[in-house]
Amino acid sequence: MTVSTMLTTMAEGMVRTCGIFFLTLLFSLPLGMIIMLLRRSRITIVSEVMKVLLAIVRGTPLMLQLLVWYFGPYYLFGISIRGYRFPAIIIGFSVNYACYFAEIFRGGIEAIPVGQYEAAEVLGYNKSQTFFHIILPQMIKTILPSMTNEVITLVKDTSMAFTLAYNEMFSLAKQIAASQTSFTPFVIAGIFYFVANYLVAFGMERIEKAFDYYH
Questions:
Q1: What CATH number does the domain located at 3-210 have?
Q2: Cβ atoms 186, 26 nearer than 8 A
Q3: Which end of the chain has fewer CB atoms at under 10 Å, N or C?
Q4: Is the pLDDT of residue 211 over 80?
Q5: pLDDT for 68-96, tens place per residue?
Q6: DSSP structure string for the chain
Q7: Quick check: 134 and 38 in contact, CB under 8 A?
Q8: Is the distance from CB of 168 to CB of 162 less than 8 angstroms?
Q9: Domain residue spans in the chain?
Q10: Among 53, 80, 78, which residue's Cα sits nearest to residue 65?
Q11: What are the Cα distances from residue 129, in Å, to 4, 124, 134, 177, 186?
Q12: What is this structure's pTM?
């Protein structure tokens, strides 16, 4: 099998890998914000439930969580899981990364001086205006380096989808390498991950510059 043939065969897997990546970001970022707000809730029971959720998700392997999300509906409720493989992957990845993003968001918000809130109140801003116009932009600027690391990790973690026998790019690379007794598929996979992470790092760097008030 030639390199061009391998690339053609792995192209579908690359598309699936990108699908996992983008859908995870699409759902995990807003979900992470919601979890963060609930984690900081003044209602004790809500805050404590979020603490337990964060502890469980951050304290167990992503591989185990994917298995729970996929097989859980069948073993717990007897629900058929036919056609549920890809949704389970997206749910598992989204919840996992949402919890990590939530803690990053919380750290960013708590790093904002109390004086910012007081100044906003003096200027007549309500809570919603204060958050979206004053706190959120400063929070984003603070958390971007940590967010970059998590997004880069997500690119590499997409390979964990093999846990549910989903043929993303790395799974196909392993299959081709085994059938052809060739190391080339792994080289192609490595180049793909490197380029993807380079693009992520470049994009995040551009965003950081956009939030650089002194630029």
A1: 1.10.3720.10
A2: no
A3: C
A4: no
A5: 999 999 898 888 888 899 999 999 999 99
A6: --HHHHHHHHHHHHHHHHHHHHHHHHHHHHHHHHHHHHHT-SSHHHHHHHHHHHHHHHHS-HHHHHHHHHHHHHHHH----TT-HHHHHHHHHHHHHHHHHHHHHHHHHHTS-HHHHHHHHHTT--HHHIIIIIIHHHHHHHHHHHHHHHHHHHHHHGGGGGGGT---HHHHHHHHHHHHT-SHHHHHHHHHHHHHHHHHHHHHHHHHHHT-TT-
A7: no
A8: yes
A9: 3-210
A10: 53
A11: 54, 9, 8, 55, 50
A12: 0.90
Q: Please return the burial class of 79, using the count of CB atoms within 10 Å of its CB with bins 0-12, 13-18 and 19+.
A: exposed
d(CA 158, CA 170): 9
DSSP state, residue 2: -
CA distance 209 to 211: 5
197: its two tokens: 């992470």
Compute the mean pLDDT over every residue in the chain, rounded to the nearest whole number.
Answer: 89
Which pLDDT band, with edges at 50, 70 and 90, does 126 fall under?
A: confident
